[in-house]
Prior knowledge:
Blueprint: E1 2-5, E2 9-13, E3 22-27, E4 31-37, E5 42-46, E6 52-56, E7 60-61, H1 64-73, E8 76-78, E9 82-86, E10 95-100, E11 104-111, E12 115-119, E13 125-129, E14 133-135, H2 144-156, E15 168-169, E16 172-173, H3 175-185, E17 201-204, E18 214-217, E19 220-226, E20 229-234, E21 239-244, E22 262-266
Antiparallel strand pairs: 1-4, 1-7, 2-3, 4-5, 5-6, 8-11, 8-14, 9-10, 11-12, 12-13, 15-16, 17-22, 18-19, 18-22, 19-20, 20-21
Amino acid sequence: MLAIVKETIVTVKNAPSDDAIRIDEIFLGMLINILWDDVNNYCYIETEYNYKGYINKKSLIIKENKVNNWKDNANYMVNGEYVDILDNISYDSKKIISVMRGSRLIMTEKRNKIRSKVSLPDGRQGWIRNEFIKKIEDPSFRTIEDIRNEIVENALKYLGKQFRWGGKSPHGLDSSGLTSMTYFLSGLKIWRDSDLLDESLIRIKKDELEYGDLIFGKAHTAIYLGNDKFIDASAVDAKVVIKSINVNDNEYDDIFSDEETIYACHKLLRS
């Protein structure tokens, strides 16, 4: 059964309990599939990128007519870091809600040069600045170069953000949160984990790496930026940093130096 996330940010946990460990985060407007209800008002869900976990049912809208309408019409994504939606067009209007990068909204026909009116999952409407929202595009209709450039651009937006286990928002994120969220913003849905368990990815050789590709290590993953550099949400550094796979580089990090390192590319990025 499909449902809509109605809160700004919702924690996905490894067990149906308030004290359980955070393993992922999902944002307002995202669609999830409820696999079954559980105890303590929690339900077991699957995300759009096939990741499973438990979330509190109070965070969801499950009415079929609303879900179907949202599925058909919520084709805009928030690309600002943390954006206010206001109840009127003026900058000093009352805030209805703030939404995270990656949230989905329905665009109405009302807009001007500065703001557009959008619909929220619960039916409320408000105004968002035009530069903080974009239409969701099918990546298969875009050039490989454009997608790769956008992946790198999206990844760099998180540079310096704190490390947070199970996170993938500007408030904090882990390594697979960084890679999966960066790809998601470009319309590429990949597995949210450091294991290479995604059929959309293919293994490549180290010398075949191109900017926007992925590097997998022991319980770790990063995005290759080109010129031997990669961007990584590092637990050691406690933030998102840029490092190098070149031993002669001052930014060298040996985290991807062993034989178990895997280099991967999304199939859409290989012609």
